[in-house]
Structure formats: structure tokens, C-alpha cells
Amino acid sequence: MSKPDKPKRRPLCPNFSSGPCAKRPGWSPDVLASALVGRSHRSPAGKERLQLAIDLTRSLLELPDDYRLAIVPGSDTGAFEMALWNMLGARGVDVLAWEAFGKRWAADIVDQLRLSDARVLDAEYGYLPDLAAVDFDRDVIFTWNGTASGVRVPNGDWIADDRRGLTFVDATSALFAQQIDWRKVDVATFSWQKVLGGEAAHGMLILSPRALERLHAHRPSWPIPKLFRLVEDGRVDEAIFSGVTINTPSLLCVEDYIDALRWGADVGGLTALQARADRNAAVMFDWIGRTSWIANLAAEADTRSNTSVCMRLSGIAGGVAAERRIGGRIASLLAEDGVAYDIGAYRTAPAGLRVWCGATIERDDLEALTPWLDWAHAKALAEQG
Q1: Do 202 and 294 sit in the same domain of this protein?
Q2: 243 vs 171, which has greater pLDDT?
Q3: Are 106 and 249 within one domain?
């Protein structure tokens, strides 16, 4: 097999990781010059910056006025587990799991909290569970966008308006890129490191009035670690919604997040960020459509993510082991050339690739990337013989 020629054009930014994600276009360390390093997050100035981050988030997400936001430790995982530990147990639970992260929440609920009335509605990678089977008299837990599978819920129409249970939504790779009907969501969490390209270790917890009612009325039967505790002495800790965070946040990371939020507003707000992700994903979808050796992992077009575009290899002789070897080699070749970093499939997903297309990615970089994907595939096959 002949040696393929390398493309001449390279992406200007080779960072296509699905988390932490690429910084916003034009970012430099200079944006952190005014960060309150060495200052207490409890100082008036520190609390002011934390409150500003909350306020800018509310504005950019176009949240309803009666929804509350808090900055919490542990990234999206910490925020979501905080919600589960504090609010579950009041009624039965339906958990939707169609990839790694939904399965993680199912394990929390079944193996750790050990709820006796928990149903797991699951599906293979590439598919959604049967949404019509969900019982909204129960609490419902799901990821809006599956980062590891590239499968998202198409919309919120399937969520009952008259539900008695709460909806708990891990929205970390969906927010700022996909349309979410907030009246369908009672609890949502995300991390700064995803669509806005912020730094990790900080999570955001969004609560509806119904979720706040649950916090006030329900006391779980299990002990809650201090780091997760939203209720003290029988009362909801209202201070966390005004920048008084549990544990110590990095004010350097806070400043970076504020910069990302302001950039999002400057480029046109939520609609513009969603449009950027849509245009980016379209580059990858068009390339997948005309490429015989790759396919979208998401089986149905209306469930395909516009942020974490996940792909499976097609037509590779030798079975799963050969597919994993070729997929890994494609990712390593492009990393070695400084063309694309961290684009291998998630470790539990089918063999393939995963390219982040969120709002901080430039479409020109994706257009430059696709010929390199073809080159790396051809070279990997040539090496295999």
C-alpha cells in the first residue's frame, strides 16, 4: 500500500478534547491579570466576583427568574452527586443510561444510595432508551447530551408538564450549545470546562422552585458529607446562591470563567453559541456522510450531538481488536503531528473517534482537520499491511 501524502493545511488550534475543552478564540493568560489571587473567597471582593459569575451565567443561559444557581466543588460530577445525595429518596426513581455517564449515576443510585425503588432504563451506545417508558410520577435522572456516545435527547417534549417527580439533568456537554426548555428541568448541573472552555474543578448547580421545595421538605435517610450538604440545621443554606461556596474555589478559575461568559455574550449570546456548535458539527457530519470508513455512533439523526461528535470505525477487518488498534493509531498519529489532540473514543465506547465541536471551536479548524483524519486512517492501514 502506497504511503499517503500529508495535507498541507493544519488546524490553527489542535485542541479537540471533549473535556477540558478548547479555550475560547483569542484567549490568552492576559485575561487573568485582574484575578484576585491571594485573596479570600470570603472577602467582599471575592464574593463579588463569585456573584458576578453566577449573574453572568444566569443571563447567558436565559434562566427563569425563579431558578437559583450555586457554584459548587467537584466539577459537574460533584454538582450532580450533591443533588442526588440531598434530594433523592422522596419517591421512586427512573434512571436513563445509554453510555458511561448515565451508567455512573445509575451506579450511584443503586449501589451507593441503595434506593429500593429504582428502575434503570438503559440502551446500547448509539441509541436512547425508550423515552415513552419513563414514569414522571417518579424522579427522573438523565444526561441531556451523552459526551461519550454523542447521543442526546432530541428535545424536552417527552418530559411531562404535570410531573410529580423531579427531573435531574446532567447537562454539562449540552448547556450553551443546545436548546433546553427550562420548565422541563428541575435540577441541572454542568462544569465550566465544557462548552465555554473554562478550567475544571468547579461545578454549577441550577435548581427550579420545585427542586427548592424538595430541599425544604425532604430529609434523606442517609448521612450527607459536609462537602455535599445543602441543608444545615433544617434550613437550606441560602448563602450558596450568592457566591458563598462550599469549600474554597479558585479565584483564578473564576476569573477565567467570567472571561468566557463575557466572550459568549459578546459573540451574540445563547443563540449565537448554539449556532456556532451547529455549524461546527455540520462540518463533521458532512465529512462522515461522504467517508466510507467512518460512521456517526448516534444511530438517529435527531439524537446526534452538536458538541461531542462520536464516531465508530466501519469496514475494518479483524474485529474489535483491530478497530481499537486502528482508532488508537489514528488518534496518536494526529497527536504526534500536533494536528489534533485527545480525539480517541471514550474508553468504554465502541472503537472510533470523538471530536469536540462546541462553541469555542472554530469551524475553519474542523475543515482543516478532516483531510488529516483521512490521511491518518490511510497511514494506519498501510502500517498494518
Answers
A1: no
A2: 171
A3: yes
